[in-house]
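User: I'm writing a short report section on ligand binding and want a predicted complex to refer to. Could you take this sequence and zinc ion and write out the structure as tokens? A short remark afterwards would be nice.
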Amino acid sequence: MAGGIDDILGTCGYRPAARTIVLYLHKLLISMRCNTLPVMRSPAELTEAFRRQNLKVTPQRQLLFRLLHANAAHPSAEVLYAQASELMPGISLRTIYQTLNDLAAMGELQQVSVGSGPTRFDPNTDVHHHAVCDQCGEVADVYVTNLAALEVEGLQGFRPRSTRLVFSGTCQRCAAVSPSATARSSNVPINKEQSP
Ligand SMILES: [Zn+2]
Ligand SMILES: [Zn+2]
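Assistant: Sure. The structure tokens for the complex follow:
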């Protein structure tokens, strides 16, 4: 079909090796919006929101707000801890986790599971999906524009609450360094590894 998945993913330079997805993506229309990100509230707005909810506001927490603002890298707590420690030595991992949990509870962050690695945190709270590079761990946002076209087998009697698709493979940058990995990945069939 015109505008197939590989074509569409290719517009962002992404070549999936295995599609860890629900099902049958030949007929699924997907578009990637590279470099677009609904920006979470500003650090100042988050400070206000925390105060309104009687949540603690400290310089450490405000540093986290700044590190996460417009952050499209889907960082793990450990990555944020390393970045925060450089700027504010002595900040604790516990503070990082508490702040991330508070932000997630307020709907300012999504927790993203992308396979075997640690949970990633995503200030993009739009409904979206992810493409994950097996080699460098990069996580990119992917948008599905016609989820209703997804043809699913085995969901009889099940009422899906949500669907999250994860494409694993090789990103454009890694493919440029190691073209053979991309060549190997291009013939991998679709997997049915993840339920909604
Ligand atoms: Zn990569
Ligand atoms: Zn995301």
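A remark for your report: The chain has two domains: 5-36+127-185, 43-112. Residues 73 and 139 are 7 Å apart (CA to CA).
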